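Tutorial sheet, problem 5. The two components below are modelled jointly, 600 residues in total.
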Amino acid sequence: MSRAIPWAYLALMFGFIYLPVGALVLFSFQDGTLPVPPFEGPSLRWYADVLGDEDLTAALLNSLLVAVGSSAVAVTLGFLAAYGLARFVLPGAALLRALLIAPMTVSYLIVGLGLLIVIQRIGLPLSLLTAGIGHAVINLPLAFAIIYASMGGQQQNAERAARDLGAGEIAVLRLVTVPMLAPAILAAFFLSVTLSWDEFIVAFLLTRFDVTLPVEIWSMLRSGLSPRLNAIGSVVFLISVAAVVLAELLVFRRRR
Amino acid sequence: MTAPVTIEAVTHRFGDFTALCDIRLDIAAGEYVTLLGPSGCGKTTLLSVLGGFVAPTEGRVLIGGADVTRLPPARRPTTTVFQDYALFPHMSLLDNVGFGLRMAGQDRRRRDATAREMLELVGLAHAARKRPHELSGGQRQRVALARALAVGPDVLLLDEPLGALDLALRRAMQDELKSIQRQVGTTFVHVTHDQEEAMAIADRIVVMNAGRIEDEGTPARIWRAPRTLFAAGFMGETNRIPARAGGAGLETPFGTVPWDGPRGDAVLCLRPDAVGTGPGALAIGPARVRDAAFFGTHTRAHLVPEAAPDLVLVAHLAPTELPEPGAVLTLSAATDPLTAFPTE
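Model answer (structure tokens):
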């Protein structure tokens, strides 16, 4: 009896987390026009519909582009900031660290509005580039925090040994620091990609003609419920899962 | 490859703290020197000055006659074996050992060949493809040594290289370090706080304290006739007998021994193995045994001499003697060479 309680709790917890996703995926196979019970199907007609929709597939590719591009920028900048702050004695280092991490506490809406004002003031047209800049801004503090936290004495000693053996600064970074920090760097990258992938507010404020997938979905939502939305949602979910699995294979397996 | 090292009047300050004070030292090519001292004595700072990790506030460092004082580590003919080994965890042993040669621009085939030779030298040729985390502490130590030797440095610096190993392994590695040094002929400078380790491997020991050199010389010379009271105490246990230097020599509670040191208060140092029941130049006289314990090669006893009841002497007696507490022994001490220092 007492052994059953933890299992029941586990089942309830996972049910709570995955039931909405399960329902979404189930009704994406609905062979009717409304994603509500009773379930009729299964059918792949909505997937065919979604993948045949040029606006949607364009938005999907835009989202991938923005996610990968902005994450690469955020992780590169975050790594350089972490390396500088961890390896060199700088005046006001504690303040610099705090300033780098502080944006994490600011809501995306405020960050997005601020960026919108700045971008319009300097006359940059709203586009995927501006959305990418927005995502780099919101992901930089996270990338910095993850990479900075994993910089320890071990790498520092290995870097010192590399210099002792004749390595220049570029060689030290390329052959010692980055490979030793690869798990943290990849973790930061994949987390940035998944956050950027389903970020809505900043992308909504900072794009105009070419939009990312969440923005496209939002505009479709205005025309009411349809199993089409479930199909898109399932595709989005599948891609997120793929990113997580890739991260697991590339990052966490290797660490063991 | 090998080269002599000259340290000319090196002083180094960290803010107000003087870590090294006017250090002057000549190390011959191919010599095995240990820097011995308690933590905070400046020995690691001196090693860092040799390796180029610390630029001294004053003074010069010459290696093979060339002034290297302002050269960065990468451009010095030195390499370092670090206390925590600092191996590259993401590389195989072969790549770890070949790293310095890779930095020197050697192609893979040549550097792999040299790296294999070096792994052979330290007995790890069979593990060339392994990663550092698959090795034991002693094996990692050997890889660090092979990596530092692979580039053919003139001077190898070792920073407490055996500090993380257990005692038995440490003793085994000492012998191995010494034999490797004999094979490669490189000048070794080895930092340690363990005087047994220093005696086991060094051609010459440099005893340091509070940023200064207290004594330097062969292990036997420093053990038998240390130049300072600190060196006498740090090299091993010693009985300190308060004494007074007068016209007739050194007046101790046990009699007067000839001494030509300055007059005034002094302290006579007697090693426990110099105190015994056999004949000796200084007759301590009857002493009561407080306790005694068998140590294999000797019996260690605490004794209270009747001539100076407020002193407790430590003596290493023959292993066949095991006196009962309370027994009275007649002691004498060998005083050649006489080790005594004036006290301020």
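Marking note: The mean pLDDT of chain B is 89. Full credit if you identified this.
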